[in-house]
Amino acid sequence: MRDSSDKTPIWKAIASALRSDLAEGRYTPGDKLPTEAALANRFGVNRHTVRHGISVLVEEGLVRTRRGAGAFVAATPTDYPIGQRVRFHENLNAAGRRPEKRRLALDERAATIGEAQALQIEAGDPVCAYHGLLLADGQPIAVFESLFPLARLGGITAALKETSSVTEALSVVGIDDYTRASTRLTAVRATATHALLLHVAEGDPLLRSSSLNHSQGGLPVESGRTWFAGDRVTLTLEA
Amino acid sequence: MRDSSDKTPIWKAIASALRSDLAEGRYTPGDKLPTEAALANRFGVNRHTVRHGISVLVEEGLVRTRRGAGAFVAATPTDYPIGQRVRFHENLNAAGRRPEKRRLALDERAATIGEAQALQIEAGDPVCAYHGLLLADGQPIAVFESLFPLARLGGITAALKETSSVTEALSVVGIDDYTRASTRLTAVRATATHALLLHVAEGDPLLRSSSLNHSQGGLPVESGRTWFAGDRVTLTLEA
DNA sequence: TGATAAAATATGTATAGTTGTATAGAAAAG
DNA sequence: CTTTTCTATACAACTATACATATTTTATCA
Fold it and tell me: Measured between CB atoms, which of A104, A133, A202 is closest to B8?
């Protein structure tokens, strides 16, 4: 490979070799690639040359690496429709992914001025704060923070302890349906905490959504913020 | 590479995530933290990485671990009430901590324009500048800078040389009572100097308080700035 | 009921494997 | 001569696994 008169660098050759392996379905999303040492041995080159090749695929978003664990085939971005009714579990099932929610915190506290304004309650009124992680096929795709006004939804904290589903919890406290009233999107850089939870690098771009859900009566029942890992989710907006 | 190589090590991020949980009062002294396995699952990392993070908190004295039992909260951030009367020693005693003040500088000089305005004196008028460190149970929690108008409080410099207590020193010069007229709070990043004094990392978040205390007569007797270590103190505001 | 043993939990320790980073140097190309 | 490519080495950070040891819970039996 080296002695012949090809002028393409070895690391590029390795990159395209691996890329065609992926294209052929030799490895499927979530699979672990051989270790760098194994690849170096297979190609008869130094580990750093292999690393250079892999880094190309990482740049392209085809592969994700985890220190100490290995290199894994990246899953294609999940389509996440933002419409009148935004339901995590339904969205992911529709996208053919296995939805999972991981609770990070759940407590009751007083609302700040800004939060109160959004929920149309008084500052200091009690709210339920639900903080967690959204996963698709076991891979973290977003961090969320939901606020529920306790004045209108007494008992929702207890309900959320039983089920991770917001829809179900709201149903328990008498809200059978709720619709998205507003969604605001901005791009931000990942903080250390978000980076840790989402398994991205600090400073990586995130898609932040600030949303408000209303009950059928037109009153706010949930105010949420969600940070999506930019390269794992594609938000789709319906008319 | 994009993924997994944060600028801040994972174990540090975990340590600060847990630390802020403590600061927010999510766990109170005696409470059991989630198991290492649960935390590893929550953060999506290996148990050893979590252990590394926890060991930081153990070093800091915030957490105590018992083999076979779990990790327990040893101490939580000191509650520091900001009300009409703000007294360091009383505040810490009420919080069950041992208060201590360490003097860093004490001198007399001319007031700058801004300082004079706050103290309602003329620019250039002499003031006493008192600079020091506040500690709780021997751990530094804040850096303060107090200014006293010498025109109204002659002899306070000498008094402050005898006692570290502002309340006592003011009493010596005839001020038996004083009340908080205003408090302004902002979040800032720790400078190298503050970081050194407070035993935090440069750039860590500090809570800066700019305050003004009046005598019973309604005249300013002290203008102060205090930098609290964000994760060691919780300022509580009374009505 | 109460004591005891077994099982399940949870932290502590040890070892090896994998990726990330830093440094230095040789070889080839421009 | 300088830059790029590749090699070589060493170490840091994180993962994976296994097992030891202490604690708590559960089951069992007198």
Answer: A202
Q: Are residues B20 and B94 in the same domain?
A: no
Between the CA of residue A229 and those of A166, B83, B110, B239, what are the distances in Å?
A: 21, 42, 55, 41
Which nucleotides in chain C lie closer than 7 A to a protein CB?
9-15, 17-23, 30
Same domain, A67 and A84: no
CB B232 within 8 A of CB B80: no
pLDDT tens-digit profile of A193-234?
999 999 998 888 899 999 999 999 899 999 999 999 988 999
Residues B57 and B89 in one domain: no
User: CA torsion, points B21, B24, B26, B29, in degrees to nearest 10?
Assistant: 90
B109 and B217 together in one domain: yes
Closest chain B residue to A229, measured at CA:
B3
Please, are residues B136 and B61 in contact by the beta-carbon 8 Å criterion? no
Q: For residue B225, tell me if it sits in a domain.
A: yes
Asked whether residue A99 is assigned to any structural domain, the reply reads yes
Judged by CB atoms closer than 8 Å, whether chains meet at A196 and B14 is answered as: yes
Find the mean pLDDT for residues B23-30: 87
- Top pLDDT among A204 and B226 is at B226
Last residue of a domain, one of B73, B103, B124: B73
